């Protein structure tokens, strides 16, 4: 007997709902949905003893087209990747890059230092560092009686 690794794409049951989901999925209409719609950039979130770090994959977006807001414990990063259709005699056969606007929001914990948040943009990566506030970090060891 051999075991088959579960893969939800290959072991999907064929129902009417799944058929319509696949039919109207963005990947099916590749060229129509890539321009003028929204997209979601990939974000890596990590934590160290001193800070939270977010790394956004936003290639093709200029840093002045990205907006970062920190308001009442919520970090909001938004921007737009514009599709510039040049007037050259160029016919696209495939456009896989997503274009349009994006907005990502994150609820932050209470132990951050909002005055020291830093953002750096380099090589298509937006890195945001949110330092933790030393005064608000309450770490205590409880003795067992």
UniProtKB/TrEMBL annotation:
Residues 34-145 form the SHSP domain. PROSITE patterns: CS, SHSP. Residues 38-145 form the CS domain. It comes from the Bacteria. Belongs to the small heat shock protein (HSP20) family. This is HSP20 family protein. It comes from Reichenbachiella faecimaris.
């Amino acid at each position: 007997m051999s075991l088959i690794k579960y893969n939800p794409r290959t072991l999907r049951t064929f129902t009417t709902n799944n058929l319509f989901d696949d039919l109207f999925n963005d990947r099916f209409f590749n060229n129509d949905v890539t321009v003028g719609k929204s997209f979601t950039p990939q974000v890596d979130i990590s934590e160290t003893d001193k800070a939270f770090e977010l790394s956004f994959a936003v290639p093709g977006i200029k840093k002045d087209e990205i907006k970062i807001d920190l308001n009442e414990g919520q970090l909001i990063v938004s921007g737009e990747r514009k599709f510039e259709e040049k007037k050259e005699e160029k016919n696209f056969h495939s456009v896989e890059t997503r274009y349009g606007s994006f907005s990502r929001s994150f609820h932050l914990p209470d132990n951050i230092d909002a005055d020291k948040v830093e953002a750096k943009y380099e090589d298509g990566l937006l890195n945001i560092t949110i330092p933790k506030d030393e005064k608000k970090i309450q770490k205590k060891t409880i003795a067992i009686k």
